[in-house]
Structures are given as C-alpha cells and as structure tokens.
Write a structure and sequence with these properties.
Layout: H1 13-50, H2 54-65, H3 80-99, H4 103-136, H5 140-150, H6 155-164, H7 169-197, H8 205-235, H9 246-263, H10 268-280, H11 291-318, H12 322-327, H13 329-352, H14 362-370, H15 376-387, H16 393-411, H17 415-421
C-alpha cells in the first residue's frame, strides 16, 4: 500500500520523469561513447595501414561523424562529458609523453626547452598578433589576444606523432617537452592580454614571469613527489607491494598529480608530465620493476593513451564550427599560413641558435619549425574566451579552428616524410 501522492514505486511523478530523463541521457552518452570507440578503433587501424599519424585521420573522421555532416555524435564543447574527456585525456597523453623521455637526453637540451617554452611563446604571439592586425583588420588588442591563444603547441598531438614516427631522440624529446611546458606560458600570456582587453588590469611582465615560475615550480615538485612515491611502491625492491597493481595505480596517480598541482594554483599539466618523466626514468632512482610487470604496464599505458587520443580528436573534429570558420576563412587561412611559415620558425631559430651547448644543426631546427601543431590547449583557450565574452572572441575562435585543421592536417601527415628528407629518422628500437 502506497502513501498518498506517491506512485506504486515510491516516486513522485516529478521524480519519475527526472529519473526517466536521466536514464535517457545516460543511454545517449553510452551510445555516443560506443560509437566513438568503435569508429576510432577502425580509424586507428586505417591510419596504421596508410602510415599516417592517427591524430590527423581522427580529426577528419570526427568532422564527418559530427552534427554538421552525418550527425552520428553530438557532444557539445561546453558539456561536462567533453571537458572530462579533454582534461583527463590530455593529462594521460602528457604522462605517456613524459614517460618516453630520458634524463640523459634532457640534460643536453634543457636550455632550449626553457627558452622556447617562454620567450618562444611570446615571439610567436607577437608575430601572429601583428599578422592578424594587418590581415583581418581587427583592433590591435584583439589581434594580440588571438596571437597569445594560438602561441602554445599541443602535446596531445605531438606526443602520439613521436610515438609513431621515430625521430632522432634529442629532437623528438625537445619538441615533446617544450609542448608540455609552453601550455602554462600560453595561458598566462592569454589571460594577461585579456585583462588589458577587458579593462580589468594591466599586463605586467614581472608579475607574469613570477606567475610562470610559480606554476612551473609547484607543478614540477608535485609531479616529482607523486612520481617518486608511485615508483617506490611499484618498483622498489622491498616496498613494491603495489607492483601487481601498477596500471590502476598510475591511472589514479595521473589524477593525483594533476589535482595536487591544480589545488596549489599551479599547472596540472606540468605535474602529470613530470610524473611521467619520473616513472619513465625510475631506474635512475634505483627502482626496477620485474620484466613481466613492466611489460604489462607498458601495454596498459599504450592502449589507454590510444583510447584517450581517439576520443579527444574525434570529438575535436566533431565540434568544428564550419559556419564560424567560413566567416573568416580567407583572412584566417592567410594568418595561419604566416603563423606556420613565419611566426613559429622565427621563434625556433631565435631560441635554438643561442644554445651553444645543444649545437643544433640546421636540419634539426628546420624540423622543429614544422612540428608545431595546434590542438587541444588553444581550442580550450578559445572556448574560454567565448564563454567570457572577450573582445573579438568569435573571430579568435574561428581562426583557432582553422589553425587546428591546417596544422594537424598538413604538418602531422608530413612529419615522417620531412624527417626522412632531413636525415632525422631512426630505426625503431624494440
């Protein structure tokens, strides 16, 4: 017997409708996830067969299955699900990239990495902003805001490329490391210019430099501490009681490193990247996993990173706003051509040439000029600017979409070809 006003299942009519709606949303989300996973797996196989970095193919297929073409998936850019995928996916890919780096290589090129991830970002932003000012005719502050949003390269794109295309170690590791470190700088410069554009503050070089130093330092410490503890518990001779659970432990630790840094107002992406470096170089700390456990962990990380990659780039492609792109197509393509062929090469040469210790060759610098794709982080910054109703946000978002498409679809598929032409390809080590 039920009480008055209740259904036979103990729910009010309103609660019953809400429960039904929640179930339908859950079913739709699960279906979308299944479609993305199925299509992404087949796309990854196709990319492997034609020997093209899969991120470029994921992006194209994402555009085809998105709401503006086939309509198979429709997950909004500002939805919680999309933000979770971007946040965790980018973090995990960064961890995977960090784990592939080696201390002995980083010791040779750390000066270049620091300089190009800081001064290089400012150079790129300034040249791109000037190009946008003259080509698009937008106000100077809007042009500089666009340049700042576009200036950082994308580790979520570059890490997978160098997993698939085996380039000379020090070049690949410099590009991957710099792409992880320059995200914080890109965000700092963007919000510094935004404060001026919205009349809420003045850009201060000293304050920005201090903020960058704080974010980087705390991020490095947080990632280092989490990495050391995880290495201790999965690979120490006496304390490795979590060795059999290394895969889920690393999964939890990626989140732990990110939120430890984020909670301290630092770069979470920096933390997960450093966490990856520590795990990848745990032998240097005297930790060594049993061969079977190490192989199991490697397979797990590779598979999980692939799944994160296909979700990120299929969704990124599905969310491309064709109407917004068409509005500034010609001017946007011109600006991005200058961005790719002038701004980023100038930044690379200006930052690499002074590093006498690294002794970069011309071919190495030319390769680094080309492998500077734009992706998840600039897209996130453009989305934030739209949400904050920043001056010129629509034109910035439009040109950002164009930058993502041009750099990933032109630069990523030609990475192996260029590496071969410049004599930088190496045999894959087993």
């Amino acid at each position: 017997m039920t009480r008055r006003g209740e259904t036979h299942r103990g729910l009010h009519p309103g609660e019953k409708v809400a429960a039904s709606t929640s179930i339908e949303i859950a079913k739709h989300t699960l279906l979308s996830g299944g479609i993305i996973l199925a299509i992404g797996t087949l796309t990854g196989l196709f990319a492997q067969k034609i020997k093209v970095p899969d991120v470029a193919v994921f992006l194209i297929v994402g555009m085809l299955i998105g709401p503006e073409v086939l309509g198979l998936i429709d997950i909004k850019a500002d939805s919680a699900l999309n933000q979770i995928i971007l946040l965790f996916g980018a973090s995990y890919i960064l961890f995977d990239g960090g784990a592939s780096l080696r201390f002995e290589v980083l010791k040779q090129v750390w000066i270049t990495i620091v300089v190009i991830a800081t001064i290089g970002v400012i150079i790129t932003a300034a040249i791109t902003g000037i190009a946008a000012y003259y080509v698009l005719g937008v106000p100077l502050i809007v042009a500089l805001l666009m340049g700042a949003a576009l200036a950082s390269t994308d580790p979520a794109t570059l890490v997978p490329i160098f997993r698939q295309v085996h380039i000379r170690d020090r070049v690949a590791q410099t590009v991957m490391s710099e792409s992880a470190f320059n995200d914080a700088m890109g965000a700092i410069v963007t919000f510094g210019v935004l404060a001026v554009a919205m009349g809420t503050g003045k850009f201060s070089l000293a304050d920005s430099a201090f903020d960058l130093f704080k974010q980087a330092s705390i991020g490095i410490v947080a990632g280092g501490v989490v990495g050391y503890l995880v290495a201790l518990f999965i690979a120490h001779e006496k304390w490795n009681f979590l060795a059999e659970y290394a895969p889920p432990v690393t999964l939890v630790a990626v989140l732990g490193a990110y939120f430890a840094a984020d909670g301290l107002q630092a770069s979470g992406f920096m933390a997960v990247f450093v966490f990856g470096i520590v795990i990848g170089n745990k032998d240097s700390f005297g930790f060594k996993m049993e061969e079977g456990e190490q192989i199991k962990l490697d397979h797990y990380v590779t598979t999980t990173a692939f799944i994160m990659r296909l979700f990120i780039f299929l969704l990124l492609g599905a969310q491309v706003d064709f109407a917004l792109m068409r509005e500034y197509a010609l001017g946007g393509v011109t600006v991005i051509a200058l961005f790719m062929l002038v701004a980023r090469p100038v930044a690379v040469f200006a930052c690499c040439l002074p590093d006498r210790r690294a002794k970069w060759s011309l071919n190495e610098m030319l390769f680094m000029c080309w492998t500077r794709e734009t992706g998840v982080i600039p897209a996130a910054l453009a989305g934030l600017l739209l949400g904050m109703k920043a001056p010129g946000a629509h034109v910035i978002a439009s040109v950002t979409f164009i930058a993502i498409l041009m750099t990933i679809l032109i630069q990523a598929p030609t990475t192996k070809w260029l590496g071969g032409k410049l004599g930088l390809l190496e045999e894959r080590k087993n």
